[in-house]
Each structure stands twice: as C-alpha cells, then as structure tokens.
C-alpha cells in the first residue's frame, strides 16, 4: 500500500531501523538522519530513490529508498523497501567492534560451573 506523502520518521520506523516512531523522530531532531549531507527533519516527505545516512545505536546506515512503506511489517518483508548501501569500511568497523566487545558474562548455553569445574579451576590457579 503506497501513499503519495510519507513522513521520514514513519518510513524509518516501518523499515525497522528504529523500534518506535518516536525514536525515529528523536533521531531526526538530533541530526542523526541526513539527506544530501544536511540534517533531515522528521516531517520530510520520502520519495523512492532518496538516499539517507542514518545513525542508530548499532551502526551508521546508508540506505536508498526503493519503495514506500507506511506500516510496520516483519523484517523479512521490510528489507525489500530499501537498499543498504553502507560503505564496506563501516561494515568492517562494526564486525571488529563485535569481535572485541566482551560483556564479561558467561556464554549463555554453558550454565553455572559445576563442582568439578570449580575444583579444576582451583587446581589450575594453584589454590
């Protein structure tokens, strides 16, 4: 369902770059969404073929609008409404950050250490 006029914040929310429409509007207000190098307002009308630079918490996106989408759909369907044209250097930086990032938590599938694990660790540490 395509509309003649579609707000930028609604489009970014619909293609799932932001979890809520208000987050998309806030990003526009704070200058995290750019069109032709300058900040784009949330009420800006989106057209097919437009290119936007969008900074989210996860990464810096470069997207090209391929079709308009005015309602939120599942991710597998939403990716057909834009083309990710993020430069390779940015993608490499994100991958590097992901490999370096360590929360300090245990791996989720491992569970708590058993008594044997604790004894082995104590023996290894020399206690």
């Amino acid at each position: 369902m395509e509309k003649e006029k579609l707000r930028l914040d609604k489009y970014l929310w619909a293609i799932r770059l932001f979890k809520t429409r208000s987050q998309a509007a806030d990003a526009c207000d704070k200058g995290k969404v750019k069109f032709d190098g300058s900040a784009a307002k949330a009420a800006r009308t989106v057209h097919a073929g437009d290119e936007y630079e969008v900074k989210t918490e996860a990464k810096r996106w470069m997207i090209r609008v391929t079709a308009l989408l005015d309602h939120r759909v599942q991710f597998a369907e939403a990716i057909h409404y834009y083309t990710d044209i993020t430069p390779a250097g940015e993608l490499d930086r994100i991958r590097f950050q992901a490999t370096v990032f360590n929360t300090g938590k245990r791996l989720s599938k491992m569970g708590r250490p058993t008594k044997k694990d604790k004894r082995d660790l104590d023996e290894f540490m020399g206690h």
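The mean pLDDT is 86. The radius of gyration is 21 Å.
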